[in-house]
Amino acid sequence: MITNADYLIQKYAEAREKFEVYNDNGNTGVIGRNYWRGVMDTYLNLLCAAFPGWAEPSSVGYYVMNKSMTYDEALNKVSVTSILK
Fold it and tell me: How many domains are there within the chain?
């Protein structure tokens, strides 16, 4: 089941991917880069304000935020880790 925190984490990861696309385009994507940076900051602020502990070690949020994984990569990592325990 996806919680509100999971939804925001997923959206943060998607915004980061789009930000990186504009960042790779150099100066031609300044407006897009600034837009997606703002979107990322908004999701991050919502997560921090409403969901304390959302980026605890070994959580989806941790892998998305600290390891720069996509949401699906982080979800798979957490799933595999929990299965191995």
Answer: 1
